[in-house]
Specification:
- This protein is α+β, with helices and mostly antiparallel strands and 299 residues long.
- The protein is 18% helix and 37% strand.
- The strands form 3 sheets. A 6-stranded antiparallel β-barrel has the order 1-2-3-6-5-4.
- The model has no long low-confidence stretch (mean pLDDT 89).
Length: 299
């Protein structure tokens, strides 16, 4: 057993030495996050750790923080790219095809530099794949890797790597019980990151409504004497949005989208994504006791 622990200790030390320079701290203090150098002068992190278009970046061993500029943010998938001078730091190795071979039991290292307070390296195992969490934009981020390498507050945006130091994911969310969800570093993430690095804005269709979940909708309808009905209650409408142009109002109950019953917010997001930015979506809308169809042109 002693030899096994010594081998693990050496592996952690080697990971820290090899990959530590590519792990950066963002902001000042525990309340911000971490990031990883993926290309010269390019850092990848989570969207939810950023506040504004500028961020303080502390490179490993640097006495002062560097000035970073946010090149692009995709809040729906909780990723962001920062441009900052990395002074010749070797980027982390990234082969997007590796993720497909990861499964429960795969050993991993998790690294972070919470708010620039010093490198953390922990070891664990992938405990599950194809997990999901809700990103800051409200959409569900699917395909995440769940792992057992413990991380402190401020570790979001740090890398998850295999035993050879190759990027497998971007640590994002700490679950109850200490498990971590990481966004998989697959081909889809690579494409999104490359687009953000080029300064290309992410365009996704949007309705322009604030919604209450089905449980709240049922309670509110019952409170005013209306029959219970599954759906999403409209709590607010952006007047300049597709929903506003189509005539949706606060208090409407969305019951179907594209002919499918709306059992959750995710069902609506999927319907909107399927139509795209140049199509139309037919919504089943219940206004009081009157049910109607509303055609929404998405943009």
């Amino acid at each position: 057993m002693t030899h096994v622990l010594e081998d693990i200790g050496r592996a952690v030390g080697q990971a820290a030495e090899k990959l530590g320079p590519a792990v950066v701290g963002l902001g000042r203090g525990w309340g911000r996050g971490s990031g990883v150098v993926i290309a010269p002068d390019t850092v990848l992190t989570n969207a939810h750790v950023l506040r504004g278009d500028e961020v303080a970046v502390r490179l490993a061993g640097a006495a002062e923080t560097a000035h970073g500029r946010v090149a692009g943010v995709d809040a729906d998938f909780d990723i962001a790219v920062i441009r900052v001078q990395t002074d010749g730091v070797e980027p982390v190795a990234w082969d997007p095809d590796l993720v497909s071979s990861v499964g429960a039991g795969t050993p991993v290292f998790a690294l972070a530099d919470p708010g620039g307070r010093g490198l953390r390296v922990t070891v664990g195992f992938v405990t599950a794949t194809n997990r999901s969490f809700r990103g800051p934009g409200g959409r569900r981020v699917r395909g995440s890797l769940e792992h057992s390498a413990p991380l402190p507050r401020g570790a979001s945006g740090g890398p998850l790597v295999d035993l050879e130091g190759r990027l497998l994911g971007l640590n994002a969310i700490r679950l109850e019980g200490g498990l971590i969800l990481a966004i998989p570093a697959d081909q889809a993430l690579r494409r999104r990151v490359d687009a953000l690095a080029r300064g290309e804005a992410t365009e996704r269709p949007r309705l322009g409504v604030a919604l209450a979940p089905p449980r709240a909708a049922r309670k509110l309808r019952a409170a005013v004497g209306l029959p219970e009905r599954d759906g999403l209650l409209v709590r607010g409408v952006d007047s300049d949005s597709p929903a506003g142009s189509a005539g949706l109002e606060r208090g409407d109950l969305l019951v179907t989208a594209g002919g499918r019953p709306l059992e959750s917010v995710d069902t609506l997001f999927d319907a909107v994504e399927a139509v795209g930015t140049s199509g139309t979506l037919i919504l089943g809308v219940l206004r009081g006791a009157d049910e109607r169809e509303v055609t929404v042109g998405l943009s």
